[in-house]
Write a structure and sequence with these properties.
This protein is of the alpha+beta class and about 190 residues long. About 30% of the residues lie in helices and about 35% in strands. A hairpin with a 4-residue loop joins strand 4 and strand 5. It has a single domain, classed as Cyclic Phosphodiesterase, Chain: A. The termini are far apart. The structure holds adenosine-2'-monophosphate. Adenosine-2'-monophosphate binds next to strand 3.
Amino acid sequence: MPIAEEINPIGPRPVRVFFAIWPDPETQKRLGSVVEQLRLDALCGGRTTKLQNIHLTLVFLGDVDAGRLPALSQVADGIRNSGMSAFDFTIEEIGYWKHNHIVYLAPRELPAELIQLVSILEDGVSNAGFSVERRPYAPHITLMRNALCRNLPELPAPIAWQAREWLLVKSEQTSGGSVYAPVGRWSLE
Ligand code: 2AM
């Protein structure tokens, strides 16, 4: 029997985690109201993201051992101490990915600060020994899952988002869908 299992009979406990930014309650409402405004449930069917779950993922880590969470927080502490800037951006696009049946919102233009934060986070976590998916970053806010859409209308109006902090979030899959819980938060200056 491997030594690790003798010490901890339960073995490593994987938790699914990701770094993300979360909208403030007003922005959250505006983003969520797009579903109703555009009648997306009638148009595409599928499952609407709960208001409190609306977010923009920065870096997805997937399953990591729970004992490694402090190492992830340390990476984020180091980045915060190097003074990352707060930034504003605008959500102007709505789209549909056929391959995974997701309806999403996205910014048309990516602020330099967002790109910088993602790239510093990716470098930080991979230097700390975590594996990060190196596929091109496609920032998006998932609005609906299991959707089947043909043509989508345009977004009625742009939605402004002021990013002032970023979070490390734990994701649990339950029968009622994903439940997200923040593990840590770091402010942007
Ligand atoms: P999604 O909404 O497009 O599924 C929690 O699952 C967050 O991580 C979601 O924003 C999810 O994006 C994103 N995510 C899940 N799997 C991912 C992967 N393999 N690569 C990048 N992001 C992923």
